[in-house]
Amino acid sequence: xxxxxxxxxxxxxxxxxxxxxxxxxxxxxxxxxxxxxxxxxxxxxxxxxxxxxxxxxxxxxxxxxxxxxxxxxxxxxxxxxxxxxxxxxxxxxxxxxxxxxxxxxxxxxxxxxxxxxxxxxxxxxxxxxxxxxxxxxxxxxxxxxxxxxxxxxxxxxxxxxxxxxxxxxxxxxxxxxxxxxxxxxxxxxxxxxxxxxxxxxxxxxxxxxxxxxxxxxxxxxxxxxxxxxxxxxxxxxxxxxxxxxxxxxxxxxxxxxxxxxxxxxxxxxxxxxxxxxxxxxxxxxxxxxxxxxxxxxxxxxxxxxxxxxxxxxxxxxxxxxxxxxxxx
Length: 328
What we know:
The chain is α/β, with parallel strands linked by helices. Helices cover 23% and strands 25% of the residues.
């Protein structure tokens, strides 16, 4: 296959997607890389031509890569993840509305342009977790103990955008990160950014049936195939506090091979899995055998999401400019 990855500057030295690109090349596929932040792309001709079987995107919030992916989708190319789905999780205010409407366990969410506006929230709902609606990688996440702390020096405001606030969910200081690789689910533990003094060894952990069901439902609600979800185990059960498209997949066993295989499978399947949860289909995807299968976990119904049936596939990990550098 001939693939195009959109890679933004922040991920220039990151294993996701660079190691995946190398793996795909080693399997004999042609991979071109677009650096949206550093180069020029003649976008009308490059995208209209449909010269790639697929484009793949992992982008920072607000990065130009998503616009390029959406442009490709607008002319009928298939995208992985689906371009419409990505924007739904990149805007955390929008994501909270979509999740709550669909019955996912998410906290009540408030939005405001200035931190001080959250002072109108009843004090009984404090402490609050406040973060930019377009944030990523734990940037500028603050735990606010009381309304009078909203004006503390250094409190970062959203530049021309929104902040969101959610009541803090009491927890052990350990975050549960659940990854979906085209339907295969993995759970890992890591230290919460709100509890940096709490020592947690990052590791893979067993995935309970309840958390697996919620994680699979996230893919259904947002239309994602490659994603991660931050889940807290609160006093009333699991609570979803964040969703990310095309995350790092840290601590996922054989992550590079698994993600590379999923990219090929999704590309050939029109952008959706079409395979049961937990079933590795490397041979069918043109991938060398030997990629270990994943135990079946969670709700098998999550795997059979309806595909878009577009004629070609677009995969992207975004940045900020755009001539194509071939990666062989």
